[in-house]
Design a protein that fits this description.
Flagellar_prot_FlgJ_N, Chemotaxis protein chel, about 110 residues, 2 strands, 4 helices, two-stranded antiparallel ribbon, mainly alpha, about 5% strand
């Protein structure tokens, strides 16, 4: 679950390896459907952030790679960094989505309760 363990009534969810009773309480106030949507949006946000970082890392690279230095290289590299970003975020990322998820769930629980 990308650093945030699944919630059950007997266990406190873990956030980055630590118990989080505040999140456990908030999860009881937010529907499973809303939790799933929130997780997806948090993951999407992390992917966009990673894409921006990867794009900056490859901006100055010219002439290397399978396409050499052709007009298609920029398009190919852009698509590749987008896929890298999505893949990394989906596999757990660098932890941004956990914090975004937690913050959004706490906000939703405060509105509901």
């Amino acid at each position: 679950m990308n650093g945030i363990g699944a919630y059950s009534k007997k266990k406190t969810p873990l956030v980055n390896g630590r118990n989080d009773p505040q999140l456990a309480d908030a999860l009881t106030k937010v529907s499973p459907e809303a939790q799933k949507k929130t997780r997806a949006k948090a993951q999407e946000f992390e992917a966009m952030f990673l894409n921006s970082m990867f794009s900056q890392m490859t901006t100055g690279i010219k002439g290397d790679g399978p396409f050499g230095d052709t007009p298609g290289t920029g398009v190919w590299r852009s698509m590749l960094t987008d896929e890298y970003s999505k893949s990394l975020a989906k596999s757990g990322g660098i932890g941004i989505s956990n914090d975004v998820f937690r913050t959004l769930i706490l906000q939703q629980a405060n509105r509901a309760g």
